[in-house]
Amino acid sequence: MQKSSVIFIWITIIFSACNTIGETRPNILFVISDDQSFPHTSSYGTTWVNTPGFDRVAQEGLLFNQAYTTNAKCSPSRSSILTGRNSWLLEEATNHVPHFPEKFITFPEVLKDNGYKTGFTGKGWAPGKATKGGKKRDLIGPMYRDIKLNPPADFISNVDYFENFKFFLNEKKEDQAFFFWVGGHEPHRAYEYKVGVNKGNKELEKIEEVPAFWPDSDNVRTDMLDYAFEVEYFDQHLVKIIAELEKRKLLDNTIVVVTSDNGMPFPRIKGQVYPFDNRLPLAIRWGKGIKKQGRIINDYFSFSDFAPTFLDLAGIGEKEHNMAAFSGKSWRNTFDDLPNKNPREYMIIGKERHDVGRENDEGYPVRGIVAGKYFYSQNFKPQRWPAGNPETGYLNTDGSPTKTEILNLRRKGLDSTYWNLAFGKRPQQELYDLETDPQCLKNLALDESYSSIKEKLKNQLIDDLTHQGDPRVLGNGNVFDQYPYSGENVRNFYSRYRGGEKIETHWVNPSDFEQ
Prior knowledge:
By secondary structure, this protein is an alpha/beta fold.
């Protein structure tokens, strides 16, 4: 046999092997809504929200009951997802609207370097700015947002998530594994008022319970149904996306993850640090890779687990990437229906600076621990207002009918209870029994009968954070207040407000600061 023929045969074998690897490596589809709380899917039993897309993923995969973001705000939550690190270990990216540190590599960047085609549609990592060497940096991959639609209601994004995903699939090579991020702008505010009733055919009385930290009124129930309409709208795209993967015979080898970045955009939820704010919906489907489908997982899942899980399942080991040490861990064992190695006994959550409205661009630092039936938290600066200084307009809470009703009740001298729960100052320590008080309304921190539980949780929290190297507990927490906002229009907001300058915070539109 001639030498050239031998070379050709070896090239053919190598090429075929590469194709086989590409076919067996799982695709990854990451579907993330914007501001959706647990338990607001029908899989979790919420009757006033209908989510057939999420439900199918859960029924044919895994449904997680205890999934937590480490920081309940868009930028830091997404930073934790992308890096596999707890929020307080991400320097500037611990804050909202940050400059993303160049030193931290994201798992989509690693996947791309290892042959995956990557991309995203809708909202990616935002709001904030990411650059490398002075040039714009794609933390997730190229953007696919050119295909538009006529949205069914005011304020819903005109990005056609489904059609942009199809365009991405058509563009990739036939045997190339892919990672794609579908980032909904829903149910982020604003909402078309009464869209849930008028276009969604929803009924106010179908809501079984209004959280006790809001007034139970038609106005608030209407607001909740408008939120539900947007949750359902985004889920409809998921239904079409799954059907398209099935049509192309890609579904069974695609890890489909459906979740949210933080809790719903209502007072005392979004941007705060209670389990209701950080606990989020999560379902994962992988036809070829999840054994015993339809299981419910009650172990604690951290958003820092996504990155190590995806790289593990893609066959990319620590020696093949130079990401910083993960805070999270791989869930391969759970997919294989094997015992969870070293399951978490508790979850730590927290925040630093989320929004504007305090002197010197200060944040409201909190760290908390969820352990079994108890939740304990430390508010490190209790002298500060947790949702921004009242005179600036409570900018840490999106404007809404619910918020307006709470403000009006106080302004008219009718009831300050809801205002105090949403916007009032908080004690240094909080402790709640989640079995009897899941909405965290009765603080047990000063109850002597709970002193031993409080001290145990406090010690667990501080010891763990000390081991991690959290600047806040190591005495250097002020560094988080010193990182500048990435947007000039929100820097020194309080000083400019006091100076009488009219200020508009356009940064709430993610496209202003998208990658």
